[in-house]
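User: Teach me something about this protein's shape.
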Amino acid sequence: MHTESVKLIERNGITVYQERSGKVYWNQESNEHVVMLANRAGYFILIKQLRKAVDSVVIQLPGGKVERGESIEMAVRRELVEETGYECGAVYYLGKMYPASWRCNEIAHVFYTDEVLTRSEQRLDNDEQIEVLEIEVAQCLQQIRDNELQDSELTFAVLQAGLRGFISKEFSNLF
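Assistant: First, the predicted structure itself:
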């Protein structure tokens, strides 16, 4: 796979390569993460945080990495509680996506729930500063349409939820 590439650096489970053309990409040993599109009574539960890679505050789905020995469903439930404080009932797998296939081998597993249960305190990692937002589904769709929300995982999740009928009324009102 990397026969036409030169390894530049290998550190902390990430290997950076450079193609002959000069393009740089990387592979991660632990390359799977999960995100959750949670619908609480017509409002999506989203998070807002600074993302240094794009030097901007980004509104996105709660989620994070899959720990060793953990199923993707266990991981998404854990991450929802950690980042938002919300627990959920039934979850539906919307599919996997490659958020940046031209740059890395990362895989995002995307879930949906409309069974948002109790809320407690966030259980953030020491380096996380996350604000929880609740945005009306119709407003979120409009903001995606108007390119005010640009996160690829969020837009993928909303598209899949619409196509599968989870938000069919709000989704069909866009067209």
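Now, about its shape. Residues 72-84 form the longest helix (13 residues). DSSP finds four helices and twelve strands in the chain. If you'd like, I can walk through any region in more detail.
User: That's plenty for now, thanks!
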